[in-house]
Amino acid sequence: MSTTDTVEEAGYTSSYLADQHAGQLARLRTLEYAFDPLSQKIFDQLDIPGTSTILDLGAGAGSLARWLTTRYPGATVTATDIDTRFLNDIPGIQVITHNAKTDDFPAASFDVVHARALLCHLAEREDILTRAVTWVRPGGWLVIEDVSLQPSLSTANPLLRKVAQAGITLLEQSIGSDMLWADTLPDLLRDRGLSNIGHRTLEGRIGDNSPADTFWAATTAQAGPTLLKLELLTQNDLDAMANMRADPEFCDAALTLVSAWGQVL
């Protein structure tokens, strides 16, 4: 699923990350390009029957839901989002308009529940995670993937750290995001009684023209006007960051893609 012009109108759907923005589909594609290989590796290593029922919660632009239909051609794949405009033309999936904050599913509805780049942006993330466990049948899997910006806060590069902190502040104030939450995912699944817990991480670097670099740049560009309006950054900051990223001598870790999974008893 994966922010607003003013912090008073908090919430993802009215934010600069919302689907109504002209560049949002292209930005989501950069996220998919960065994250899909890791997501696919996770599913490939799990023991999931070919006839499973799979929920992709907050499916965004739908690349993983589409892939799941080919990876498990006998499965029933349900893709949900609060805004399904990018999902409706994908063949072979069931599409449901669904608000993860308020809408539920009956207990034990799915063999697999997956969410990616969703819960970090929802202030109700802990409650949603708890409820998502109940949607999984005994023996099934919960797979949660999200983005951590810890590397960009730990960098020795002061400009990257300044830009990253501004973005985190904007996300916190306008959406309620927690961009460090992903680092705790294995413990969160363990606390909810799941077994066979595992996790994998993938470092995302900027300045190397990698998929993570493209995703970071697209998100920063989309946030730019709001960062300026709220005076979290200046145009000089944004220009300097763009110039540094384009410098062939520059490359630094900016984010971590985190995947965690566990089996419901």
Features:
alpha/beta, globular, 265 residues, 8 helices, 38% helix, single chain, Rossmann fold, disordered N terminus, seven-stranded mixed beta sheet, 7 strands
| Relative strand content | 15-25%
> What is the alpha-carbon Rg in Å?
18 Å
Q: Which strand order does the major sheet show?
A: 3-2-1-4-5-7-6
Distance between the termini: 27 Å
Spans where pLDDT lies below 50 across 5 or more residues: 1-10
Please count the helical segments: 8
Chain-averaged pLDDT = 92
Overall description:
The protein is an alpha/beta fold and 265 residues long. 38% of the residues lie in helices and 22% in strands. It has a domain at 12-148 and 177-205 and 256-263: 3-Layer(aba) Sandwich (Rossmann fold), CATH 3.40.50.150. It is built from eight helices and seven strands, in the order H-E-H-E-E-E-H-E-H-H-H-E-H-H-E. Helix 1 (24-45) crosses helix 7. The longest helix is centred in the N-terminal third of the chain and has 22 residues, at 24-45. The model is unreliable at 1-10 (pLDDT under 50).
Compact summary:
With 265 residues, this protein is an alpha/beta fold. It is built from eight helices and seven strands.
Secondary structure: elements and pairs:
Elements (H helix, E strand, L loop, with lengths): L23 H22 L7 E5 L5 H9 L4 E6 L12 E4 L12 E7 L8 H10 L1 E13 L1 H5 L3 H17 L10 H7 L3 E12 L4 H19 L5 H12 L5 E12 L2
Parallel strand pairs: 1-2, 1-4, 2-3, 4-5
Antiparallel strand pairs: 5-7, 6-7
Helix pairs in contact: 1-7
